[in-house]
From TrEMBL:
Keywords: Membrane, Transmembrane, Transmembrane helix
Cell compartment(s), UniProt: Membrane
Biological process according to GO: sterol biosynthetic process
Species this chain originates from: Didymodactylos carnosus
Keyword Nucleotidyltransferase: no
Membrane-crossing residue ranges in chain numbering: 6-26, 33-57, 63-82, 131-151
Keyword Transmembrane helix: yes
Lineage of origin: Eukaryota, Metazoa, Spiralia, Gnathifera, Rotifera
Topology in membrane: Multi-pass membrane protein
InterPro entries: ERG24_DHCR-like (IPR001171)
Family: Belongs to the ERG4/ERG24 family.
Protein name: Uncharacterized protein
One Gene Ontology cellular component annotation held by this UniProt entry: endoplasmic reticulum membrane
Length: 195
């Protein structure tokens, strides 16, 4: 339960220290604060986000030290990937070449698509980090039940679908040739070497 609480505190803390980037996200720009965001606020936040906490409170489960250490490592990898990838994109959109991404000036493909940092690795690595965060929250419950894993599983399905919609939107926005060139650089949609 302590690990679960720390994970949520860090997740929220890192959100609120850079809250301004939220206005530049897919939910706001493409969906116009649409159905998916409202559904998430009404269903995910009160029910699925708290599911693991309720499960931990109702079930005594002593996790091994190795399990907790691996879960902590995965959480910090996921949180860093999720937040940093979103912040890289936001900072470039807001400040342009006045920022550094991984200690160097941002690189662009034909002056339109960011290929620095995480955006040169994958097209939706931010979703990968987010799913990994939720998976580690579920890992705080152990392996007694599949129920706590509904959150990361449902988000994997939701964000995979969103990644497909975003790819279609970007291909239309940037044109087939430029988008295909970008896909050759950022080869992975969400999971490096797998998807």
């Amino acid at each position: 339960m302590v690990t679960y609480q720390i994970f949520w505190w860090l997740y929220l803390f890192t959100h609120y220290i850079r809250e301004d980037f939220m206005l530049w996200t897919f939910d706001i720009i493409e969906d116009h604060f649409g159905y998916m965001l409202v559904f998430g606020d009404l269903v995910y936040v009160p029910f699925l986000y708290s599911l693991c906490g309720w499960f931990i409170a109702d079930n005594q489960n002593n996790l091994s030290g190795i399990w907790i250490i691996i879960t902590l490592i995965l959480f910090f990898i996921g949180l860093y990937t999720f937040r940093e990838s979103n912040w890289q994109k936001f900072d470039y959109k807001k400040y342009g070449n006045q920022i550094n991404i991984w200690f160097k000036k941002p690189q662009l493909l034909e002056k339109k698509l960011l290929i620095s940092g995480f955006w040169g690795i994958g097209r939706h690595i931010n979703y990968t980090g987010e799913i990994l965060v939720y998976l580690t929250i579920a890992l705080c419950t152990g392996t007694q039940s599949i129920i706590p894993y509904f959150l990361p599983l449902s988000l994997f399905i939701l964000l995979s679908q969103r990644a497909s919609r975003d790819d279609i939107r970007c291909k239309k926005k940037y044109g087939d040739q430029l988008w295909n060139k970008y896909c050759n650089i950022a080869k992975f949609r969400m999971i490096p070497f797998i998807y």
